[in-house]
Design goal:
The chain is an alpha/beta fold. The protein has one domain: Rossmann fold, CATH 3.40.50. It has eleven helices and eight strands. An eight-stranded mixed beta sheet has the order 3-2-1-4-5-8-6-7. Helix 7 (about 155-165) links the parallel strand 4 (about 140-145) and strand 5. Helix 5 crosses helix 6 and helix 8 (about 185-200) packs across helix 10. The model has no long low-confidence stretch (mean pLDDT about 95). Bound molecules: S-adenosylmethionine. S-adenosylmethionine binds near residues 85, 100, 105, 152 and 156.
Length: about 280
């Protein structure tokens, strides 16, 4: 799959590195930056999951999803990585289904949840093809994805949007984070393509796939605008009763008739979130 989808190379590389580390703290020090961009000799798993806790509860609160029912609910997390956010979800929800394309990440995710969450509430789902979830229709109350869809090949990202809609029960919500176009993409987009091509080179490719700057350039494999996602949703058999788009207050979006626009300080300027209730 990596030949057709070179953007997967740095995840697979980080997954292999995670397998070779002695302790979970070592994993955070070696590859934690692929999840929260933090580096340092003194990082550890406790600090790492703490960053996840801060973000999940801030987002659930901002998106009005932090209800009293959470302890009875199931959340599906698409792109869980090694469980930075999964541990917090497992404490708040009855069940968390952590999905990731890298099987080694999912093993580490289980260890993270065992240490900082409620492992009896965790189920993992290996997204082997990068686009479908081995989860039944309507299992989730909330399907959540953060800084993941931007890393998928364009059509895989849209397929995961379809999957998110499918696995969410009527009355449940999808909460999906996307990256959209910015003026700086005039430079970043071609550089990213170049980097993905270089990851395929013998010798230098594997070396580059472990470098932070190179990874950051190459792994953002798509940009999805609200218009494009809206057109995709219109073709799905699953319908939504409400749709809200959250964006940064520092970025203006034009008013739409298919979704309410709201701002939240915690949203990166180049990101936007779709929060929609399944009907
Ligand atoms: C930047 S990390 C974010 C992880 C987590 N959401 C967090 O904030 O810590 C992106 C994750 O998405 C996973 N990923 C990338 N492409 C994917 C795909 N097509 N399907 C499922 N997971 C994918 C990667 O393996 C990685 O764990």
């Amino acid at each position: 799959m990596s030949r057709r989808r070179p953007q997967l190379i740095p995840w697979r590389t980080a997954g292999r590195v995670s397998e070779s580390q002695k302790s979970a703290d070592d994993v955070v020090r070696e590859i934690g930056w692929v999840f929260n961009n933090e580096i340092g000799e003194t990082l550890d798993l406790a600090e790492f999951t703490n960053t996840g806790d801060h973000e999940i509860f801030a987002y659930l609160e901002a998106f009005q999803l932090r209800t009293d029912d959470l302890p009875k609910q199931t959340i599906v997390e698409i792109g869980s990585g090694i469980g930075r956010m999964t541990a917090g979800f497992s404490r708040a929800f009855a069940q968390v289904i952590a999905c990731d394309l890298d099987a080694a990440f999912l093993e580490r995710c289980r260890q993270t949840v065992a240490q900082f969450g409620e492992v009896s509430r965790l189920r993992t789902c290996h997204v082997a093809d990068g686009r479908t979830l081995a989860i039944s229709d309507g299992e989730a109350d909330i399907t959540f994805s953060y800084i993941t869809l931007q890393h998928c090949q364009h059509d895989d990202a849209l397929s995961l949007v379809t999957e998110a809609a499918r696995v969410t029960k009527p009355g449940g919500h999808i909460a999906l984070n996307f990256r959209t176009w910015q003026p700086i993409d005039l430079a970043l987009w071609p550089l990213g393509k170049l980097m993905r091509a270089m990851w395929r080179l013998p010798r230098v490719g594997p070396w580059l796939a472990r470098r932070r700057l190179a990874s950051r350039l190459g792994w953002q494999a798509n940009r999805l605008s609200p218009d494009e996602v809206s057109r995709h949703l219109a073709d799905l058999p699953y319908k939504f009763a409400t749709r809200v788009i959250y964006h940064s207050p520092h970025r203006r979006l034009k008013a739409r008739n298919d979704a309410e626009l709201r701002t939240f300080e915690g949203v990166n300027r180049s990101h936007w979130w779709l929060i929609a209730e399944r009907s």
